[in-house]
Amino acid sequence: MKHIFFVLLLLPTVFFSQEKLAGVILEANNKNKNLVLPGANVYWLDSSIGAVTDMNGKFSIPYKPEYKKLVISYIGFKTDTITVGTAKAIRHWLEPTDNLDAVTVKSRKQATSKSYLQATNTFTVSSDELLKAACCNLAESFETNPSIDVNFADAVTGTRQIKMLGLTSPYILIATENIPSIRGASQAFGLSFIPGTWVESIQITKGAGSVVNGYESIAGQINAELVKPSTDDRVFVNVYGASSARMEINTHISTKVSDKWDTGLYLHGNSHNAEHDVNHDGFLDMPKYNQINLMNRWQYTNPEKGFVSFINLKFLNDEKQTGELDFDPQTDKLTTRAWGSEIDTRRYEVSGKFGYVNPNIPYQKIGIQAAFSSHEQDSYFGLNQYDITQNSLYTSAMYSSIISDSRHKIKTGLSYTYDHYDEFLDAKNLDSNYERTEYDIGAFFEYNYDNLEKLNLTAGIRIDHSNLLGTFITPRFHAKYTPWEKSAFRMSFGRGKRSANIFAENQQMFATSRTFNILNSNGNIYGLEPEIAWNYGVSYLQGFNLFGRKADITLDYYKTDFTNQVVVDYENPLEVNFYNLEGKSYANSFQAELNYNAFEHFDLRLAYKYYEVKTQYDSGLLDKPLVPKHRLFANASYETALREGGKHWKFDATFNWLGTQRFSSTASNPVAYQLPDFTPTLSTLNAQITRVFSSKFEIYLGGENITNVRQANPILAANDPFGANFDTTFVYGPIFGGLYYAGFRLKL
Amino acid sequence: MKKVIIVFMFLVGTVSFAQNKNARTSIEVDGVCLMCKTRIEKACFKTKGVKSAVWNVKTHELALIYDERKTDVETIKASVLAVGHDTKDLKATDEAYNSVHPCCKYRDEAVLDDHSNDD
User: Nearest-CA neighbor of A244 among A183, A298, A285?
Assistant: First the structure.
């Protein structure tokens, strides 16, 4: 009996000793252009073993010597069968069923794709879009996307914050591979800790989003999929240098360890050590910094058994130094000899994912995730000191299946989050130590109904118990209706709740001479209550043909209503006050976006955005400071036809216009330190040219803010940094002016 | 131990004798486009017991997962025929065939030619 058991145990190992066949499927065209085909079916003839190509046209399929014929099929293309002798990588061009030029153009993949089918208002940004700007990190990669606003770097830390629906990033759930990653201590700088080349694609969901990833999202969800060792280039090198003397290096190395295991080593370094002061205010325009960022990924794939697993190890060390030009950290740190600041961050992360799809019943899936991170930031800003350590654990388990038939899908599971925060402060009027432990256990259930034609809806609910937020229910609802061809009406509503990490999220306030006050003391989080908001949205997407070319238009209206908010009040120029909302706080946003493929290889994107973000401050119901009411966005991209060997040119330009923005009140300051009520309007232009020499090598050259727009005096009372009016938070525009960069990408 | 084995054997027996809750099969169904796909798949789901139905426009293969206790392949085929789509071995009635959208008349050579330029 025992022996039989062992034999049974051995059986699976027989299947394990298998090879895999990888490759890429492209669309054949008479110009030799590299048009990848995402979503093509690849399977072995007379077997049930198959795969589907990803966003980049890549696939990987189990291989056995007895498999000889590989079938590749895709709607609108001739189905091909190729004979395979060995498990050598395949590069195959699929012929369109009708080899007319028009067909080639029509089926061209968009760099950013909007879904006509899903219930949520989600769009996917592929790696093609990410290459439109030489984005160095995740924060900068949204610059060609009108749904996300990238703020100008603040005067001291040089960090770029993002906004969605007029709300700042703490109200957006930012995840890497569906594990919430930029939260708590990493909120302020976290986006700059994910290098752009690590990102394979980004999914952006407007509105509350799914309940699966937690209850914290209010304005939306952003998920970054990282490059996978099995499909990434074996060797990838990217070097970037800018006129500001910023240098970046990215290298990826991925190898196949065995037939089931792949591993990748990703190394990112950036450094900027030059001193710039174009506005002659005595302060550095951008910090000096050094960052080392390492990631090691292990991927296990066994499509036959239906197992997929990832193990990731990450390490980050980031050092920034800024302040007055003559500031020397050795001698001047925390003294009044010169004003300066240093921010040092170290972060360790370990995460694992395990997925199982029942090979016989493909709609039954199990997913388990776990992530542990330790984040430590030591910093000072002039005389203010701020250190934070966060240890965090996130685990979740999810089961998906169907009810009665596959039109009714369900997802259900449990999640557990643990966060320990330890903050040390030396800042006017604040305690020197804040420590808290937050844990949460939650259960979620999501139901999706798709009637295969017009209606698709998702209703989700989760129940959470948290030691600091209490026991509460988070409902979320999304629906899509298609009354006629190429259209999608969407509506959504949902609730979000979160604890505001008031210091970590508002670190720029330490680079001022303000006094800090927390006006409530009864709540669980710094004496404050958790933030609660409802988000409602409607959206209409319509695709159409304009002069025979593809176009689409999207109209969005979203409203976020805060039931409670931690108000961050800058209205007294000598103070920053935190208090629970009393009265109204809301963010209304309207966006109109037009995408048009005006002629072959030329894409145009135009957007107009209107924001009304108001909060009841002690001094009245006011617009949120530094949020423009009106914005215009335009992006144009052009690619030349592909020459032999894949040679071609790519051109891309992005224009942004920002309306006036309100300054928080400076009326009580001495006249010399008073600011007008509103900022001037502002427009910036970025452009990039890429020369592709082959599929292996390309160089790019670009300019940011090439019209050289600058905010003349970003720092208030720069001449008196230890006086009462010193303030670095009034930044509404670029400080440095124009910047040029060049770099190359090498793939092997 | 022996008893356990006997009980176990007995259980195994019943399981294999019981009808499969997740039976898988494939049938060939004629059609031309995504509209046909929706029509065919919807027809399958109208048959109680069908859990998953995926029709491939290109290969005309209809992959089914269904509960054998509630339905069988013949019933599913009948539902598909009722909405006007032929299977490999059975032809839909002219009445049913005429109910499909004019652009989906897959028996018509002209319509097939039209669709070969699609996508």
Answer: A285
